[in-house]
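Target chain:
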Amino acid sequence: MTTSMIVPVIDVQGNNFKELWPAMLLAIKTSSFIAVDTELSGLGSRKALLAESIEDRYKAICHAARTRSVLSLGIACYKKLENKADDTYLVQVYNLTLLCVEEYIIEPQSVQFLVQHGFDFNKQYAQGIPYYKGNDKGGDVHGQNVRTLFVELLRARRPLVVHNGLIDMVFLYQCFYAHLPERLGTFTADLSEMFPAGVFDTKYAAEYELRFAASYLEYAYKKCKLDNCKLESSQDGPQDVCLRFSAYGWCPSGSSCPMSHNTDLIIQQDEKTKENKRRKRKKRKHKANQEAEGGGEGGCLSPNKKPCLEEGSSEHKEGELAMETLPAEEGELATGTSPPTEPEPMNDQPQVEEEPQTDAHVLTDEGNGGNGVCEPQPPPAEGAPESQPPGGKTAAQAKKAEGGTHRAGFDAFMTGYIFSFACTLKRSPDEPSSESLLPECLNKLYLSGKSVPLHIAKSTFSKSSKAHTHKMEVVWGKS
């Protein structure tokens, strides 16, 4: 069974930006936490982005942020209802279409990906909200623009939530705040002052706190949603899951892959596999106690999980799941307003509805936080057999376009949903719900290929940058 819900996302662009400005400010100022996501024009060298040295990675991301741009910005403002017995949130989601007024690189791979998943470049160039990068210029810092909106987000002093967010944080800094510092230590020192309530990375939370089998955005969101609703799904018959997509949220074959990319099914298969392994371990232990020589075969993948391109390509991690607490209800209301039952157009611009379905597209946020650029994957092993559809099905019969939506606004909503679920799940019974944030994940950004996160902190060896120091004076009205 596949569940879906409609999440109204307000499209913000040049012709309605000023009209929606008061509502956006109110949503930010009255929120409990804010989740953000970006869509980018590219990231440059994938190899450099995954360099062994974190300092080298930072330099590569800085180069990308200085030469590329943010095409759209998603902001999801979560407001906790304190008078509710359970963790219930009102959520206002905005999808801002942006247009950098300076020259920037746009990569064909990113264009192709975004167009395939519904991004309207005609609308961007016709109605994109203009912005410039780097330091402030003139009196624009006090006008109604994206850079000022980012300043208001800082003034709200709310926790900021991202998914695989190092790239997002670097781009937000360069595009809407100030010129990036040259050193990573200076950058993290600046961030610690910009966001005193903390930055939380839901990919880190999914990996190290929730211990999900996979941590890409759509998987983590649907896993939380399924556990939250305590759904018991049943399939009409066994389906084959693509191991590559199951582990990374990305498959080189795309929609032509004969295996299933349905994240609901992937989660169910992972649960079954985990339970099968648990039973086998218990059986082996029991047998070892009865016989002098113990043995038995090791845990194996679910028989319904088949590899895409190569055998043994799964990178699933085992983790114990304990999902018995119900977190926030799913809801979407305009903060501080009384919206009608049905969404109404604003200034001739329809309010967009995003609905996660089983027939949409593939999310690719592994290694990039959902920015629309795939992490490089290893090539298939030489001589590896190509996977064939089961039961003699043809590729056309087995082909399914499965997945969720991929827009910055809805991705921000999914990021916030994961965070609210994790907060509720990890809160001790005697802890007040108002203090339900994740202390274990505070100021820790996920690093691909590393066992430790990037800590956002100001050390004795790193000073704040001059551009940041000046900007903080602007933020707090000292200049």
Summary: The chain has 15 helices and twelve strands. The mean pLDDT is 77.
